[in-house]
Amino acid sequence: MSKWLRSFCRKMIRRYLPFWKPFVRTICVTSFLSFGLFYFKDIDSVLYLKFVYAVLFFVVASYCVTRNSKFSTFYGLVFGTNLIIFLVRLYQMGYWLSWDIVDIFFLSYAIFLVAFLLNVPLSKLLCFLKLQKKCIGKSENDYRNLFSERRYDLNLIANYLRKYNVIGVESKWGDGKTFLFELLKEECKSKYFFVKIGVMSVTTDIVEKFILNEINHLLENENIFSLASQKINNLLSSQNSLSAVMDLLLKSNSYTNQIDILKRDVLKLSKKIVLVFEDIDRISDKDAIYKIFSIAESLSCNYIKIVYQYNEDDLLAVLKKEKIYLEKYIPYTMKLTPISFRKVVKKLCKCGKYSNIEADDFQFLQQEILIPKDVSTRIEIEGPISLQIPSFSIRKVIIFLDSVENYITSQSGCDTKTKRTIILFYFIKHFLYDVYNKISEKEKFLDTKLFEWEGVFYSIKELLNDDYEKRNLWTLERNKQMLAILLLFDFEFEPILDANGGYSEN
Q: Cα 441–442–446 angle (5° rounding)?
C-alpha cells in the first residue's frame, strides 16, 4: 500500500507541479508583501479600494485589447490575494460595521474585476481537476506546443504554400508530418480546402479516378457540380497501361480540355484547394507513383496546390531514380527540422504521462565514458568516448519511453542502477536493432560479436585476448559505439584480465 501511495503522490506532483508552481510563488510573494503593508501600517480603506479599482480597470482594459492571458493571470492573482488579506485585516480590526455604500460599491467592483482576470486560470484548473484525458493527451501529442522547431516548420510550410504550387515535405516516419498538417489545416482553414489523399489504399488502375473523385466530392459539398471529372474518368476507363495514359495526355485535346474545365470549376470555390499526398514513399508500385506525379502536374496551378509527404531515401529507392528526377515533379522541398534525442526525451517526460521515469534518468546515455586503463591499453584505444545519439523520430522516442515506463511499472519501481540497465536495453532494442538482433539468451553479452573490421566480426573477449593490431578498429565510429554500450552496462573488465594483459576465462 505504501509503494502505491508513494507512486501516486509522485505522479500527481509531476503532473500538476508545473501548473501550480508559478501560481503558488506569486501568491506567496504577494501575501508576504500584503501582510507587511496592512499589519504594520494603517491604510485608509476607501482610498485603498479606489486605487485598486483604478489599477484593475486599467489591467482589464489592457487585457481586452491584447488578450494576454499571462498578464491578466498575474495581476488577477496579485490583487486577488491582496484583497483577501485586506478583508481579513479589516475583519480583525472590527471595521465591517462602519462601512458605507461607497465602500461596498468599490469592493464589489474590485472583486468582479479580479474574477474576470482569473477566468483563464480557473478554466485551466477545472480541466486539471476533472482529469480529462483530452487535456493530457493534447500535451503529449501537440508537437507545436512541445517543440519550437515544429512551430517554425509550420510557418515555413504555410509560407511555401503561399509562394509555390507544388511542394514536398521530407522527414522520417513518425516525425509528425500528418499531425503537422492537421495543425496547418486548423490554422489555414479560412484560406484553403485541404483534401487528404491516402495513397496507400490506391492501386495503379484507379489512381487518377481516385484523385478526381476526391476533388469532385469537395465541389459537390460546396454545391458546385462539374461534369468534367466524370468525362475524364470515362476517357481513362479504357486505358489500362501507363504508356496509354501518357499517349492520351500528349495527343488528345479532349483530356486536356476537360482538365482545364475542371480547374475552372475549382476556381468557383471560395478558397483554394490543397491536395495532400501522404507517404507516397510507402507505395511499392512505382507505376502508381508515376501516375500520381502525372495527374498532379496537370492539376497544379495557383488555386490547386499540391503537397507531397515522403522520406526522400525511401522514395528514390522505390523509383530507382536519382534525386534530380524528383526535382522535375517536386521542385520545392523542405525537411522537418531535426530535434535532438535529449530534447525530445526532456519535453515528453514533462508532459505528465510518465510517473516512473524523468528526463534526468536518461542523462547517462550522453555523458563521456572513461575507459579502464588496462582495457584501453589492451585494445589500443584512447578515451574518454561517448555514445553518439542521432535525432530519432518523435514517434519512435515515444514508443521507447513507453516501453521503459511499462517495464519499470511492472517491476514496482527499481533502483538507479537497474533503471539504467533497463533504459540501455530498450535503447538497443528500439534504436540499434542490428545489435539487438545479435543478442542471444544462450550467449553472454561479452561473447557477442559486436565489433567489425573488413567484414569480420569480433567480441570484446577476442579483442582483449588476441595480439593482432586493433588500432584500425576504432577508425569506424560504429565500433566506438559498441564499446560505449559495453562500458555503459558497467561490466567489470579488470577481474577478467590475466597478469599478461589477456582475457581470463575465470
A: 85
Contacts 24+ apart (CB under 8 A), 38-44: 38/85, 38/86, 38/89, 39/89, 43/86
What's the pLDDT at 406?
A: 92
Mark 363-388 as b/e (b = at least 16 C-beta within 10 Å). eebeeebebeeebbebbebebebbbe
Q: At 95, phi and psi to the nearest 5?
A: -90, 0
DSSP characters over 339-353: --HHHHHHHHHTSS-
How far apart are alpha carbons 447 and 441 in whole angstroms? 11
Helix (H, G, I), strand (E, B) or coil at 320: coil
Rounded-to-integer distance, Cα 77 and Cα 150, Å? 32
Distance CA 449, CA 467 (A): 17
Q: Which residue has the cell 584512447?
A: 382
For 103, which DSSP code?
A: H
Q: What is the pLDDT of residues 99-110, one digit of tens each?
A: 555 555 556 656
Query: What does the DSSP 8-state code read for residue 475?
Result: G
Q: Give the helix/strand (H/E) hosting 23.
A: helix 2-39
What's the CA gap between 362 and 456, in Å, rounded?
Answer: 33
User: Which residue type does 463 have?
Assistant: L
Residues 229, 216 contacting (CB under 8 angstroms)? yes
Helix and strand element counts for the chain (H, E): 23, 7
- What span, in angstroms and rounded, lies between the C-alpha atoms of 206 and 196? 16
| pLDDT band per the 50, 70, 90 thresholds, residue 402 | very high
Residue 44 contacts residue 86 (beta carbons within 8 Å): no
